[in-house]
Design a protein that fits this description.
By secondary structure, this protein is mostly helical. The chain is built from 3 helices and no strands. It has one domain.
């Protein structure tokens, strides 16, 4: 997503308090980080060999989690920039 496009899209946290935004960020990060950790442990574990199909499934899920984390980070960055701009323009 380009910066130009992202500036025109509605912000997913518009109208939320900073506490609500923080809660959303924690929930977004927790699920993805948990999935990545679980799958990484499975990939490097020696106890239960994985089939090629299981590898493919795990990598697809990990890719989805990384994309979700990226989206969350972009949203957080935009939120912080918007609030910094509001603070800078407040008399």
């Amino acid at each position: 997503m380009s910066d130009q496009t992202s500036r025109h899209d509605a912000h997913p946290w518009a109208g939320l308090t900073p506490t609500q935004v923080l809660s959303n960020v924690v929930n977004d990060l927790y699920g993805s980080v948990s999935l990545l950790g679980r799958h990484l442990n499975r990939l490097i574990g020696e106890n239960d060999p994985l089939t090629e199909e299981e590898y493919d499934t795990i990598f697809e899920q990990m890719d989805g989690a990384v994309r979700h984390l990226s989206t969350t980070i972009v949203s957080l960055k935009r939120y912080a920039q918007e609030h910094t701009e509001e603070t800078d323009t407040t008399p």
